[in-house]
Amino acid sequence: MHPIVGSPNPGTRIYRRDGSQEESAVWFDAITDIIGPSVSPGGVGMYCPVSRAAVYKRIKEGKLSIFLFHVTHRKTTLFGKNKILRDNPYGYVPVSEARAWRVELEARAVRQGLITEEELEGTKPDWLGDFLAWRNSKERLGLFDVYSPIEVIKGIAQANRDERKRRADLKRRTGGGA
After folding, report:
1. pLDDT (tens digit, 9 = 90+) per residue, 47-85?
2. Kind of pairing between the strands at 66-73 and 14-20
3. Which of 67, 96, 124, 144 is most buried, with most CB under 10 Å away?
């Protein structure tokens, strides 16, 4: 399995593999076939109420798996230009481990008396999250329901001009570095 997932770092569950940008898609498909759904380290917070720093700490401690793909081969684009290599690897954490971590944190909070099981689940658990649904479908407005396509394009162009102006002003005030 190591040729697929990569070699583990000693004492951790960090698996590293390297290859070309084109190989990364094949690697990702193989990884998700093995580990199931996955998220980036920042995405763990969708499943477990923790900070990105806590995710990195748990990975370093060997308590959370991460699968990394380092792009190491420079390729040429269709237009003959060199493709820039990524500075950071692609990294994916199994969603199953993020969910298990949440259960662990909830159990610890109950044991420490910070919260009760009833408070954790509520007196009437809302498994479906019905409160999130739109009350009335007429309340939903898309971008083009509010603005015409030309207004959207003009707005994006203006935002880009404003950002360029802001950067130029910052560069002028700081003497060239921005």
Report:
1. 998 999 999 999 999 999 999 998 887 666 677 776 666
2. parallel
3. 67
Distances (CA, A) of 130 to 125, 142, 171: 11, 21, 49
* CA triple 29-33-34, angle to 5 deg: 120
Pairing of strands 38-39, 66-73: unpaired
What is the average per-residue pLDDT within 156-172? Answer: 87
- Residues 157, 161, 162, 163, CA torsion sign: positive
* Identity of the residue numbered 151: E
Q: What are the boundaries of each domain within the chain?
A: 2-125, 138-174
Of the two residues 167 and 5, the one the predictor is more confident about is 167
